[in-house]
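Appendix B, example 12.
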Amino acid sequence: MPDFMSNTADLDVTIRSSWGSGLVADLTLTAEQALSGWEIAFDYAGDIVNIWNARIVSHSGDRYVVEAMGYNANVGAGATAGFGFQGSGTSTDILPVSINGDAFGDDGAGADPMPPSVSVSDAQAAEAEGTISFDITLSAASDQAVTVSYATMAGSAAAGSDFSDTNGQVVIPAGQLSASVSVALVDDTVPEDTEGFELRLLSANGAEIADGSGFGQITDADMAPPPNDDPVDDP
């Protein structure tokens, strides 16, 4: 009997070894249907210091999300694939949450569905456009409104002289996948190199942050004055 079951795949969790301050765990999935890729979310209170046959997509609190490598992404119905990791810390509890968004439970329907993840895009705009817009996008539509808090962080572009320091919240309505955040730019006549700043997602109510950093690139069309090429009169 597998440790955890879903309509997509069953998952066995085995603690290969533990020593009080760490462990080695093996997780093996058996596909209920053919998979052309898999992403597994699970809760583990320790820190993963090494992982094999999978890569970490995100880590927020105790929640890890990992995905297949290219060589083990395709799993036929009834076939198996697995990964393992070394963790540090005293916890040996590993609680799978979902695979490809399908919740694990005792009978395939006992766990709460995994909330969608939210990401912020990179953006680019010319200084003269006056604003730069970032897309805030969910991995899947939610049945409730998702509220995301954000703030700008200066980089080579300075708050006040290149862009307006901005913070606030944006709401993605229920059933929708995205919303946008606009940041005002300062248009001046000073020739400048291309500069950048960050829009950072601080928290999300109703979603988990996957990619919380968007890079804003500001280009400048102001031209430096031409050099003075007037000939110098001979004495």
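The chain is about 0% helix and 50% strand. The longest strand covers residues 195-205.
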